[in-house]
Design a protein that fits this description.
Layout (H helix, E strand, L loop, with lengths): L4 E3 L8 H7 L4 H6 L12 E2 L6 E10 L5 H9 L5 E5 L7 E3 L1 H9 L4 E8 L2 H5 L5 E6 L10 E3 L3 E3 L2 E3 L4 E5 L2 E5 L4 H18 L10 H10 L7
Parallel strand pairs: 1-8, 3-4, 4-6, 5-6, 6-7
Antiparallel strand pairs: 2-7, 3-8, 3-11, 9-10, 11-12
Amino acid sequence: MQPGFQVLKRRHAVGKEWVDRFASIPVANISDSMSRLNSGSARLRPLHAGGALCGPAVTVKSAPGDNLMTHMALNLSVEGDVIVVDAGGDLTNAIIGERMLAYCIAKKFAGIVVHGAVRDSGWIRQQRFPVYACGVTHQGPYKNGPGEVNTTISIGGMVVCPGDLIVGDEDGLVCIPQTSVETVHAKAAAKFKHESETFAAIGQGDNDAAGYRAKLAKLGCYFEA
């Protein structure tokens, strides 16, 4: 192996049953259930026409502005996968555009995340295929390497291992480690259920005025008489 320039096989991936279970849960509920510590950078925004992202990760570490390893990852991915590219957050050159994305759609991948730039944004906005990126530029990529496929990456502080579950919606992205899907799902599903059931009662009470007053008093807040 040559660290920094290697293509590895993905040994394990979260199962489809967990993809199906998480697909309808808002990212905010999942994030809250993970102590709000494993979400993607706020710079990573959805650029597509709308719709949730959910699937196991194929990871890419690329040199900024270079998509050689991203092309390799497309060749290794299977239906339902999410390609997650750490391109250093650089916006000088686009990592993907409409032709690569058309291939992703044809192969029925679940989506793509680029910690960097994309192009052909008008075309992307017309598609339901999930695309998350930090920005847009018309300048195309290089294909020189180096880079890595299916190694552990970090995008905006979110650590992603090959096969981890990636979930995204209008609010952003979250990564759920394969070893934590059962625990996180139990908490997130319960939170989503609770919030859905109590939504109709919003506005009928006083927003727990007594509880907030007591907390502020404990912290030393002054209340005018």
